[in-house]
């Protein structure tokens, strides 16, 4: 299903099997008359910049281990957003705030079939405990719920709430819109608590498509009961990201069920579940930095495809394995204690127990074109964490405020103000002609706060292009834009793009390191000598989607649509793909490889979904070394799994 084409014309599909298209829509001419919500959304506000070592290779860092929550309270610029208290919510932990919060969520959202792609919504929960007694839900895409910290802003389901006591009919406290047009649904810096006496409760039933994340969230069941902390079993969850999140209690911490579209998780802590920490059926999930303290399995995988890096699984009992799987898995650097074994593999007729620390393990058969697949560890590129930045004082923030709808003339002046953080108050902005601005060394962070920049038909299709010519070693972070943003990366300064749809990213020779986290993107290339670290990327162009022209590219979680080569690596480049869902959804030329490498080093772990004749890649991998080309082929009308491809010597 096509779910996030470049605006303003964007196609939506309504069925994974039929591939039926809805009529392309354009932004309403009257959008300038819409009363825009003045809400600012701030995510990832903890900590100073994480230093990034310079040089030709990535710095080796300790393995990521579980969540590291920022409990809050976080600080925001004065008057930067409308809060739920504007709608009457109290947040004293005693008053029932259900109606007030629901009023805030429903304001301007009465039409469930309305097109809200260019009209996002965002709501701030100031410090407090917001007691609710029924499901909170909304219609339409592009909604952000922003708190002030995982222990500072809490949404709590009242004990013994009606309708939440039936374990055979689970009921969510928070319910996002379902389907495959539930774009950019975000839950950031909140606590989600289920009061006692609600055994049928789920904290959140979550669907977000293409991009969207749960971040810095603490999910807790006060009596340990409840169906699930995070329920991802509805059609069509993902691609999405869950990062820096802790779940305590419930039968299942994170529950997944369907084949599409994939979930990427990083920095996850699970404790005291009753059935499983993560229960996966059929889904592709990519996990890095998992800490589980449980007597039950940390992960059960039935029919799914799991990539697990850096796991510490403790608290087990001698009769239960830490991981149970009957299908494809790739495991690296995972240890267990107390359990019968670290992993039980039942994918063959003879079940196998794998004990001790698993430095690397493949459940499935690795492939290679250059001899035998003797390595089961993949390329194993060193990983760097995504940098973050928070100004030490709110006086160090500069706000961009247009003089009128469509005005971008003052943006360069704001960037040149000397402030370290430049922010766009939450709104729908407009740029008919492309506005090119250069980001000076003094700016460390540009925050869109879930805003969108609606584009026109003027010069270069409108939007805002941030040009980075700096050679500073301080990373530049650009985050939280729905779309309308373009990046020219010309200098050696590291660039970080987070929680955004980027219309275009162009790197030039000498460009610095690139970090992508929960990103939708149209165009993406890596230069010779450049390093890129990618978490949860969605790319849907009808051409070569990613070009590695001699750099180093590490990807955890990738989802693509349409025909065209997924990754082309050349000129001595290194590419490691850890978990990809390849979903062409259209006929693919029989001569078009999914992955191409020419005199390069690569390893790929992915699966391909195919639902129509000819809608798969006939050539999965094409590898050329010293002028000799070899290929791995497959039927183009059947789905395909690659547990591990080893393409290096």
Write the layout of secondary structure elements.
Elements: E1 92-96, H1 98-106, E2 121-124, E3 128-132, E4 136-137, E5 143-146, E6 153-157, E7 171-175, E8 186-194, E9 201-205, E10 213-221, E11 228-232, E12 240-248, E13 252-256, E14 263-271, E15 276-281, E16 284-293, E17 299-302, E18 305-314, E19 323-325, E20 329-336, E21 343-345, E22 352-354, E23 358-363, E24 367-368, E25 397-399, H2 411-415, E26 421-423, E27 428-431, E28 435-438, E29 445-455, E30 464-468, E31 476-481, E32 485-489, E33 495-507, E34 514-521, E35 525-526, E36 531-539, E37 546-548, E38 552-561, E39 567-570, E40 574-583, E41 593-598, E42 601-608, E43 619-625, E44 628-633, E45 640-647
Parallel strand pairs: 1-3, 2-5, 3-6, 4-7, 5-8, 6-8, 7-9, 8-10, 9-11, 10-12, 11-13, 12-14, 13-15, 14-16, 15-17, 16-18, 17-19, 18-20, 19-21, 24-45, 25-26, 26-29, 27-29, 28-30, 29-31, 30-32, 31-33, 32-33, 33-34, 34-36, 35-37, 36-38, 37-39, 38-40, 39-41, 40-42, 41-43
Antiparallel strand pairs: 20-23, 21-22, 42-45, 43-44
Could you describe the 3D structure shown?
The N terminus is likely disordered. The chain starts with 91 loop residues before the first strand and ends with a strand. It is mostly beta strands and 649 residues long. The protein folds into 2 domains: 235 residues, Pectate Lyase C-like (3 Solenoid); 260 residues, 3 Solenoid (Pectate Lyase C-like).
Helix content: under 10%
Fill in the CATH topology of the largest domain.
Pectate Lyase C-like
Number of domains: 2
**Net shape:** globular
Largest sheet: 16 strands, mixed
Total number of beta strands:
45
CATH architecture of the largest domain: 3 Solenoid
> What kind of assembly state do the chains in view correspond to?
single chain
Q: So how many helices?
A: 2
CATH class of the largest domain: Mainly Beta
Q: Give me the CATH superfamily of the largest domain.
A: Single-stranded right-handed beta-helix, Pectin lyase-like
**Uncertain stretches:** 1-61
Backbone CA Rg: 23 Å
Given helix and strand content, the structural type is: mainly beta
Strand content: 35-45%
Cα end-to-end separation: 37 Å
Mean pLDDT: 90
Pfam family, one: Pect-lyase_RHGA_epim
Protein name: Rhamnogalacturonase A/B/Epimerase-like pectate lyase domain-containing protein
